[in-house]
Amino acid sequence: MTIGEKSVALHRKLKGKIELTSKYDVKNKEDLALVYTPGVAAACLAIKDNPEEAYNLTSKNNTVAVISDGTAVLGLGDIGPLAAMPVMEGKAVLFKKFANVDAIPLVLDIKDTEELIKTISHLAPSFGGINLEDISAPRCFEVERRLREMLDIPVFHDDQHGTAIASCAALLNALKLVKKDIKEAHIVVNGAGSAGTAITSFLIELGAENIVVCDIAGILDPSDETLSSYQQNLARVTNQKGLRGDLSDALVDADVFIGVSAGNILKKEMVARMANDAIVFALANPTPEIAREDALEGGAVVYGAGISNTPNQINNALVFPGLFKGLLEARVRQITTEMEIAACLALSNIIPEDELRPDYIIPDVFNLNVSKDIAKAIIDIQDKTT
Amino acid sequence: MTIGEKSVALHRKLKGKIELTSKYDVKNKEDLALVYTPGVAAACLAIKDNPEEAYNLTSKNNTVAVISDGTAVLGLGDIGPLAAMPVMEGKAVLFKKFANVDAIPLVLDIKDTEELIKTISHLAPSFGGINLEDISAPRCFEVERRLREMLDIPVFHDDQHGTAIASCAALLNALKLVKKDIKEAHIVVNGAGSAGTAITSFLIELGAENIVVCDIAGILDPSDETLSSYQQNLARVTNQKGLRGDLSDALVDADVFIGVSAGNILKKEMVARMANDAIVFALANPTPEIAREDALEGGAVVYGAGISNTPNQINNALVFPGLFKGLLEARVRQITTEMEIAACLALSNIIPEDELRPDYIIPDVFNLNVSKDIAKAIIDIQDKTT
């Protein structure tokens, strides 16, 4: 059986990977009167008098909505909300496993962006945070930005920022290993969708000054009028040397390749054109931009990928559970870049510098310190500011 | 401590009455690859190819949304979505306890009816059914009707139909006990909101021909132009004798009083004006229309109430868990009146006729046969029609 066949068989056996359970066993009429009418009315009124009590008297304090419209699911594209459900349930399983956060998968049957924003905003009262997932670019930028303005709970598009935080944590460690400085490193980001855009912005926040972004048409060029406004913004803040050409041109003497694009588009010969001690992150799923052996044969010293069967798996699952745990525990209303940077540093610092090796720049997703340390980093920031 | 204080203390201790749990423990990278990327992609594609597979591969088959806008919560009125949350979580606890159905509480921050309908319709893909809850009348009628037209999963406004099914199941047994026929019985329904409207319609479906509906202004009269269109409809199908006056006038020689109105509005003297072997259901919460002792002193033979500290508790919790269990198991797309009648008969028939007593006309909510029998009644109908 292929892994896909095995997965379908498991899904068919489970008939759903998650379930809702009670934290209190209702054994008799007295219990019933406490968790439900008439007693429950007092809990309702306490929240009506003081909305903050919702965090003390309901599940809001530990519950996140995992919301998708199914327009950009994994590498599968616009498969619709119903078909996106297994991914959202999978995320809910990981939220629980790695950080004991209750995540409710909600797939929305909406195509219109305004309608999507409105609908998600209406859902906010039940939740302590919103994890947006698998929403197509460039709509995802608008959706997240507007919801952050509207809501008083944190909104986080994982495909953007989860990927950025995880890959930059790995990059910081890889750069330590090859003794290069992020400020000087020549970094090529391949893919100008939600992940590529977020990684680029985050690299700049971390101090990178020499980034070139490529998409399928080659190096992004601010004078190209066919670019979307988001890509134009990207082009404007990158490519300081005004390079033109394709990915192969961009990679000449590059220190870092970060691919968030498509399988097998990076060739061994292109890696060979990179600088010494090259770092290659091939994050496309399920097929990386280049296989590990090819990247190493091309001269890369550090290789990371999104898939699980190579060392250095760079996976959002390293980030979202602990990040939301911290956001919920600290009752954060708005995620800040400072928090994202703190999460990134917490993740990279889990591996002591003297333990870093080319095939160990990012902790294993089953390392329980990961979510704990990230949550703590968020809580520390909130404690500092309140 | 009052029951309200005890309830708040319990809520504060629990910090939410429900949690989301995994049905599969992810122990290693192979597990991860099955429940999440890359394996999960095959489950997504299987659903994309055949949407029906969502019922086999995701939690949709056993998951209901419990949705409220917080406009008509218990007897508390429009307390808003956040403050409604403890009730919705309470319902989720009962769904799980009595029928092992996973119910997700969703409180929506919406005032506009059209917006409410649109938002709920967008949520449908994640769920196998929708339980509407505590939405104010007359909006609730429009919301339910329109959603039933739009969606291919069952939509059930519990305040209407759950109340109707539970109270009519009790009534059928009470009528057996006093040897009266529903066709001839003179029935007074007091309260013309969502529950009163639904009870009246359901009584007619069950064969009742002599119903008078009262609201705060007295007996509903089809010539009264101040009535809402829903109340006018109610007036038109009831009060065949053209009675005028107040509740006290309506009750002269009445066989049955069903109150879904407000506490303490029914007086002992009014009960005394009813026919012999009068049946009084005082369903207002938390204070019934009349206390049990007063009703019995007034001459009532059978008394039922919504509260838990008297015999014959007529509670929606007798209905919604088993009803949805049946709807989900039979993959019903549209609830029919036939199904509601079947649920009502299943509920009343749990007590064998020779065991009926004035203080035992409706089974206890903790009787495990209740949800089983109701679910079976729904499944039997679906089997018959497919």
Fill in the keyword field for this structure.
16 helices, alpha/beta, 386 residues, homodimer
Task: Itemize the secondary structure elements and their pairings.
2 copies of one chain form a homodimer.
Chain A: H1 3-14, E1 18-22, H2 29-35, H3 40-49, H4 54-57, E2 63-68, H5 81-99, E3 102-107, H6 113-123, E4 129-132, H7 139-150, E5 155-157, H8 158-178, E6 186-190, H9 194-205, E7 210-215, E8 218-219, H10 229-237, H11 247-250, E9 256-259, H12 268-272, E10 278-282, H13 292-297, E11 300-305, H14 320-329, H15 337-348, H16 369-385
Parallel strand pairs in A: 2-3, 2-4, 4-5, 6-7, 6-9, 9-10, 10-11
Antiparallel strand pairs in A: 7-8
